[in-house]
Each structure stands twice: as C-alpha cells, then as structure tokens.
Write a structure and sequence with these properties.
By secondary structure, the protein is of the alpha/beta class. It has 14 helices and 13 strands. The protein binds zinc ion.
C-alpha cells in the first residue's frame, strides 16, 4: 500500500469517531469562548484515545492541547468548535426550522472543522505508531473563532512556536487549497463622557457624549477617502446615550472594527481613528476612553506547504457524494436566490480561476480546483492568521454544503450535520493527514517551509493584542 492508501484506511478507521465529534459539537452549539461542554467532550475523547490533554491553555478555559508522542517533527492540527447566535436550525432540514428560536447554531460549520481535524490527528498518530516513527502530534482545541480571537491568545502564549507545520481546513462549497490571505482586524470600543443637562432649559451647561460619537463617525467617514481602498472600517452604536431627546446625554459608546490586508496597515489606521476620537472629544468638551477589544493578524500563506497539500488533495480526490447527497443538496439549492448561486462564479474569478470550472447547474462541487497562488487578501478575517505568523501553516476548503449556500446561514447549520458533511469531513481528514505524512517524510521540505516563514515575517510574531488585554470570556 502507498501512503495515500494507508492514510485513507486509517481515517476510515476513525470515521465513526469523526461523526460522533461532528454531531456532539453540533448539538452543543456553544458561543465563542464559552464552549465548556465541547471542551470537556474533546478532553474525554482524546484521553480515551491515548492522548495527553492540557486544558485551559492560552489564558482561555475552553482552549486545550491534546498531544501524543515526543520529539520532532511536531505537527499541529487546528480544530474550532464555536457556534453563532440566531442560527439554530434542525439538522439536514431544508426548511427553516430552528431547534430553539433565536438560539445558537453551527452556522459556520465549526463542529465539522474540529471533528475532521481530530480525525486527521488520530490517523496521523496511528501512522507514526504503526511505522515506529518518532515525532509529536498535537490537536489544538481553538475556541472563539467567530468571537474572542482564541488563537491569538494561544499564539501570544507561544503555543505554536515549536511547530514544524500546522494544518487546518474550513468546511464550505468548494474543494481547494486556500492560497489567499485574509484581512487583519482590530476592534475597540470608544466610550465618551460628558455632562448631562436639560436640553431646553440649560443646554449651555451640558456636554453631549452623543454629539461626540456622531462627530467621530463623521470624521471617520471623511477618513475613508485617505486610506488604502482594501481597508474596511465599520462601526456600531453600542450605547447612544439614552432615549430622551430633552436630555443632553452624558454617556455614549461606539464599537469599531478596522481591517486591512496587513496588520501594520490596520494598526496605522487604528491610530488615526483614535486621533479622530480625540478630536471629537475636544470639539464637544467631552472625554474619550478607548477600550481595546480584540485583534488578529492577516493570514500569511506558506507556498511550500500549500503545494504539498495540493498534491495530497489531488491524490485523495474530492468527496464522493451519492444520490441521496445530491438530492439533499438540491433541496437546499431551492432555498437560494439566483444571486447566491451565481456567486460561485465571482468566487472563482476572485481566486484567479476560470469561472467555468464550476457550472451553475452543479449542486455540489465534485472536483478539486487547481493550485493558483495569489497575493491577495479576501474580505473577512480569521485568527488562523496569527498561527500562520508563528508556524508554517496551510489550509484547505472541502465541500460540506451545496453550491450557493450563503455563509453564516441557517442552511449551513442544517448541512453541518448531514451525510454531505460526513463525506466532506472524511476527505478533509485524509488530506490533512496525508499532507502531514508527506511533509514530515521530507526534512528538506520542512526546512524550506520554515525558511519561507522566517522570510515573510522577519522571524518574529508580534501579538496585535496588547499584553494587558485579557480574553473576553
Ligand atoms: Zn468559520
């Protein structure tokens, strides 16, 4: 048997475990940084399978590392598990039907993400064990991807620094190696304080915090023309000061996100936003306090490792769906708009690919897209970025849902516990485990991947979250 056949058999050995993890975490659907039942499930899961588990790493109670073996090479697999608010939905059900009205649901498929990564870690461990090879395998239990930046705190504590390689994936609509970057992001609250007064009787004695927030937002909207076009700045009123127009509001709070292709660019814009906030305070005779919330780096691709992952993906091939899977995907497709379905073409163009690689008539993507390295950041941010500054990192997307499925939707929740997801998870685990086997059997390649990392980062990771900012639990 060649490596591909061995790895396929090892992952298949754990297929029922992958389904168990997928379905259990789907059921728990816990909020980011509060995944207590999930973390406890994984602790038992890995201990029963002979791993050592360290809970509460990186200052977060629901973060953990499950490890096996000793010495080098050290291979890490990243697993996520947090859910999203308001996306509760019955499994495999193509009609909107929440399990719990307004409840949390796995609307980004992170239950699958963790389950398949766990399967890859188990299969890779068995490969080492059965071939008498030395090395360490780690599964990183990463909380709060959607909210909380769990991996950033883990990275700040140096938990990824000694990895030779780090592998992960994201469930989705297409099969490909991710070659694009993601946007760095910094988020903070701005709290303004003034003096309240009767708005008609003695407004001259009042100093309005609401005015300050409004002027800050106006200032930032003027800033937009003078920052790089790839940057994104969003805000939301957290507290507009009150509901009475006849009161001068002495308190108001606004929440900002600043995103840019590189963390340094985001930091520069973030500083300019603070200047504007201070200007607004000065104009209104109020004071402002910035409360740092969270931050994460852009994703730093490792081409050396990506190429191995592409080769592994092509060897394993796309998930093989049956008639029942296509019928289920077809049922979901009926809930999408034409614009949702046409969006796949745009995605392929964004990835520098021929948009006709996938037909609009397809309900499930059944091929593996070609390798197209791109120096481009896709909109959106992920804390995998910070890991990619610490260790050579590569990731894939694997089909777990119908083409046209909108991100963060009830349809994702429904399909994240389905026969489609089970097949996608199985493939994702195989590709990750095979990539690990191929990479560690080539010490030159590991060296090259490390050199590429050092060249792209200057050999150091600077955590974008200041040392005194603790995780939001
Ligand atoms: Zn996600």
């Amino acid at each position: 048997m060649d490596k591909k056949e061995i790895i396929s058999a090892l992952v298949d050995r754990y297929n029922s475990d992958i389904i168990l993890a997928n379905d259990t975490v789907w059921e728990y659907a816990e909020p980011g940084m509060k995944e207590y039942k999930t973390a406890e499930f994984y602790r038992q899961f890995f201990e029963e399978r002979d791993f050592n588990v360290e809970m509460g790493v990186g200052e977060v109670p629901t973060a953990f590392i499950a490890s096996w073996g000793e010495g080098t090479p050290i291979v890490g697999f990243l697993g996520e598990y947090d859910a999203l608010p308001t996306l509760s939905q019955e499994a495999s059900c193509a009609v909107k039907k929440p399990v719990e009205e307004g409840g949390y649901g796995q609307g980004c498929g992170h239950n699958s993400l963790g389950a398949a990564a766990a399967g890859a870690a188990l299969a890779y461990r068995d490969y080492l064990k059965e071939n008498g090879l030395k090395g360490t395998v780690r599964f990183y239990g990463c909380p709060g991807e959607e909210y909380g930046s769990g991996k950033v705190f883990m990275a700040r504590n140096g938990l990824f620094d000694d990895l030779d390689i780090c592998l992960t994936w994201h469930p989705g609509k297409i099969n490909r190696v991710s070659t694009t970057s993601s946007l760095a992001c910094i988020s903070a609250f701005y709290e303004f304080r003034g003096v309240s007064a009767h708005a008609a009787g003695n407004p001259h004695l009042g100093r309005s915090a609401l005015d300050a927030v409004e002027l800050m937002n106006v200032g930032v909207n003027y800033l937009r023309e003078h920052i790089i076009p790839e940057a994104r700045v969003h805000y939301a009123y957290v507290n507009a000061g009150g509901i009475a127009p006849n009161v001068v509001h002495d308190y108001a709070k606004v929440h900002y996100f600043v995103r840019a292709p590189k963390i340094k660019q985001a930091q520069e814009i973030f500083d300019r936003v603070m200047d504007i906030a201070e200007g607004a305070a000065k104009m209104t005779g109020t004071t402002v306090k910035r409360i740092f919330h969270e931050a994460l780096c852009d994703y730093n691709p490792n081409r050396t490792l990506e190429k191995v992952m592409q080769q592994a993906f092509e060897e394993i091939g796309a998930p093989k769906f049956d008639q029942a899977d296509f019928a289920l995907a077809e049922a979901f497709r009926k809930t999408y708009t034409q614009a949702d379905i046409a969006d796949t073409k745009k995605t392929l163009e964004d990835y520098g690919m021929d948009p006709d690689l996938i037909s609009e008539d397809d309900v499930l993507h059944t091929g593996v897209l070609p390798y197209v390295p791109l120096n481009k950041a896709m909109p959106g941010s992920t804390d995998v970025g910070d890991v990619s500054y610490c260790a050579p990192t590569a990731q894939i997307n694997v089909v777990t849902e119908a083409l046209g499925t909108p991100g963060h939707s009830w349809q994702v929740t429904a399909q994240s516990r389905s026969s489609i997801a089970n097949k996608g998870n199985n493939t994702a685990a195989k590709v990750m485990a095979l990539t690990a086997v191929m990479a560690v059997s080539d010490p030159e390649l590991l060296k090259k991947a490390k050199e590429e990392l050092i060249k792209s980062t200057g050999g150091k990771y600077e955590c974008p979250i200041p040392a005194d900012v603790k995780p939001t639990l």
